[in-house]
Design goal:
By secondary structure, this protein is an alpha/beta fold. The chain has one domain: Alpha-Beta Barrel (TIM Barrel). It is 32% helix and 16% strand. Strands 1, 2, 3, 4, 5, 6, 7, 10, 11, 12 and 13 form an 11-stranded mixed sheet that branches. A two-stranded antiparallel ribbon has the order 8-9.
Amino acid sequence: MRALVGGALGVLVCICACSDNGSAPGDSGVVAPGDDAQVNPGDDAKAVPDDNYIDTHMHLNVGKGPMKNPSGAAQALLALMDANGVEKSVIVVVPSHTQSPSADLQEAADGVAAGNGRLFLAAGGATLSSFLQEVEPATVTDETKANFSTQAEALITEKGAIAFGEMISFHLCMSSTHSYQVALANHPLYKVLSDIAAKHGVPIDLHMEATETVQDTPENLKTACAENPDELPASVPPLEELLAHNRKTKIVWQHVGWDNLGNMTPTLVKRLLGDHANLYVSMRVEDRPKQIESSEDMPNRIVGKDGKITTAWLDVINQYSDRVLIGSDEFVAPAGNDVKFPTSFVSTWSILSQLSAEVAKKVGHDNAASVYNLK
């Protein structure tokens, strides 16, 4: 049994779908009026001990320029995992915007290779997401689909990816160094990807802000980044269209509990899980209680001010315990790196201590092992 601590043994970490090479340190949530204020669970939060837990969504921050060190980032992550009772982690790739998508992919693959058989690659977040966002849905041709398919297949057969991710469907911009990215989930190429995922029996790891209808962008998000448009598209109906396209495809909606618009409610998540048996949700508790560019509390966090799982979220977890996973979504840098960003790994894993032993085993291990084929 691994020792548990409230921190990361000196390991330095940073958060969200962005790294220090071209990303925003200010990702946070945006509250809807009337939502309950929530805070982090405290410095003494500890994960439940287990030698076999699986985190479905982690990042390696390998550093910049000549100081890049994928192996060092991998070793730092392993130390963090050991300190919190986690045996395996899935490493996802996102575009850094400072180098080519293929270079981002290779650095993640190098880090995974240095992970002593405990780190596993989810690929496509840099390469395939970039492809999707460059192609308007109406312009997709058979040739486009063929080129996309070739790239996607190679990630599985040549790079050894066990999932497609972090696929960016709807990503808000949080600072001047961040980016606004949209390729809604009903894009024709997402449907191609769904069929490929089903063929190989691998999941799609999806980053998607929740909007059920077209809505105005909150003022604090427009203040945070000029890239955010005045109006935001509806993302939930396209997701449901993708889920219905191929029921054999397992789609893992990441970052549930980290809500930038106030729409990712337990009620919405429960409805979607009830309507779509191929949808899975991966939960995250970020140690940041306030919205970006605002003094308002973050909405729809998994835990309340007292650090306890809210009644509404506990109901979701217990009712759909076969389809809830953990995805801490934290960037881990080599020891000695000077990046300092808010964290989420320990606080996310600590919620398992509030679940029954049976449910904790499902959420912390069994579901991830099944979905990601990690026995």
